[in-house]
Amino acid sequence: MGRPRANDPLVKVNDLKVHFPIHGGITRRRIGQVKAVDGVTFAIHRGETLGLVGESGCGKSTCGRAILRLLELTGGGVKIDGVEISGLSSTELRRFRPAMQMVFQDPQASLNPRMTVSAIIGEPLVEHGDLSKEARVDRVHELMDAVGLNRDFANRYPHEFSGGQRQRIGIARALALNPKFIVCDEPIAALDVSIQAQVVNLLEDLQEKFGLTYLFISHDLSMVRHIADRVAVMYLGKVVEISPRDALYAEPLHPYTEALLSAVPEPDPAMEARIERVILKGDVPSPANPPKGCNFHTRCPKVMDICRGTAPEFREVAPGRFVDCHLHADTRNRSARERAGPPPTTEATGNPTE
What we know:
Distance between the termini: 44 Å
Number of helices: 12
Order of helices and strands: EEEHEEHEHHHHEHEHEEHHHEEH
Radius of gyration: 23 Å
Largest sheet: 8 strands, mixed
Helix content: 25-40%
Mean pLDDT: 87
Shape: globular
Structural class: alpha/beta
Low-confidence stretches: 1-6, 332-341, 343-354
Number of strands: 12
């Protein structure tokens, strides 16, 4: 296998599927499946932050965990730094773990309450490294300095820290093995609003310092706008839109993205009064029994007849902008024609050439 080029995406997710079986009856036979992630495709470039947004239950966290093989894949593939990890054995996967790490949503639940901060941050170094005890202590102190923790607190336990400090411990643990790619699974959702900006700024500083690549999962679109370079929007197990950040917030292409952005609070009362809220009717369908055709057609304010029977194609409709919607079915061809300009003409007759 050839080495990846510098301009290649660090992470490539291709038609990723994660389905959970449903068992019922006395014999506990399989009677169905929950399609938590159902055919997700995207790439993340080196040094980039891709924001993954959507309402609760859409499959964001499941997607992030599956990319790191913390959950087994039902189908599709994942390449990280040119290595297809979907087929790696447990032994091979263990050797590859240092390259990919995760920051979990709840810092209280993700830290062992019986271990000191030094032991928590140093655990990856014990499992995957061969440093001496003195070198491990030095490395732990370096990591604590990097995330803004006082190294004098190394022998304290997680319950002695605030929520923001516990999340810094989790970030330091994720950095211990010098990873290239980190999945941040709603890392600020469990924190006070006053602390959220501090943690996000810390993640940005660490990205610049260590050249990290992030998948930043969140339902807070205001914070995603601050940290992400591009944004992917999920609905019912599928990615419905991927766009550069500024383009998506200025002109969302998918009706679901419009609805999400219209729900973001606006601090300026004058602007808040001018915002037209998109109110979606009905409930989110069950991922165990998704609708036929477009997943969103049961709630879409712009639904067409074709949406009810035919699933749209996830396509590029403008440079760097991908959308899964019949409203933009002809946009790609029209944009290509516009870029190409008028057809060539013959000098003799001026008629278009065939």
